[in-house]
Amino acid sequence: MTRVARILVNALAFGVGFGATNSLVNAISNHYADLESRIATTSGAKPLEIVATLLDSGWAWAGFAVAVGWLVARGGGRTLLAQAAFAGAVALLAATAAYSVVDTIRGGGPLSSWYESEPIVWWFASVVFGAPLGAVGACIPRPGVIGLVARLTVPVGAAVQMIVLAPGRNAVITSIGQTVVWTASAVSIAFILTRFLQVERRRFTSAGAEKP
Predict the structure, then answer these.
(1) Quick one: how far is CA 203 from the chain centroid?
(2) How many Å apart are CA 94 and CA 49, to the nearest integer?
(3) Three-state SS for 58?
(4) Residue 153 and residue 11: Cα distance in Å, rounded?
(5) Tens-place pLDDT, residues 41-100
(6) Concatenated DSSP letters for 126-139?
(7) Domain residue extents for the chain
């Protein structure tokens, strides 16, 4: 099997797994949520529902595409960015398709209409955003500023989404989601910056020691 074929198979497999998991977790959390109760609607929150809300957020899908691109980059290759971009787009398309299929099955609709369960914008978004996000993942192992920006993309993006478009069907879930994401983002950003500064300091120290 050629490298491109392996990337395609892996991207499809990861995408199907991610999309199907998203749909199933949403289904289970909705099953146990009393959406007709006024209290549940305004302040109810369960751990699984919070997990489902975070997993189905835009930053999680974006992070998934970045992770797929990073996995491609680990294999090396001269056409690394192109392969990672291809993998990111395919993975998000497969995830959207799997999400749609599982949603259709759960809803009891005809399986032949599975592609209609999600708005067409998500299909376009999978390619438009999946490709560059996959390329970002390929840049994560790179040294210097490019690698730093790539590593900061997901935590910074997640933190920004919690400000611009925080998920959650009520204020309690939204607040918990914001707290979880902001905390995780702050820890991740601090770790990434600390590691970057340590590496850069060692690099400059080594370069200075080698000078005559």
Answers:
(1) 32
(2) 24
(3) helix
(4) 20
(5) 555 567 778 888 888 889 999 999 999 999 988 766 556 888 999 999 999 999 999 998
(6) HHHHHHHHHHHHHH
(7) 3-210
pLDDT tens profile 20-40 = 999 888 888 776 665 555 555
pLDDT at 114 over 80: no
Structure tokens at 78: 């001269």
Helix (H, G, I), strand (E, B) or coil at 118: coil
- What global pTM score does this model have? 0.85
3 token code pair: 């490298």
CA–CA dist 83, 66 (Å, integer): 13
- Treating both helix axes as pointing N-terminal to C-terminal, what angle do 3-31 and 47-55 enclose, rounded to 10 degrees? 140
**37 contacts: CB under 8 Å, gap ≥ 6:** 44
8 Å CB contact between 29 and 48? yes
Owner of token pair 């560059």? 132
Task: Provide the residue type at 58 as one letter.
Answer: G
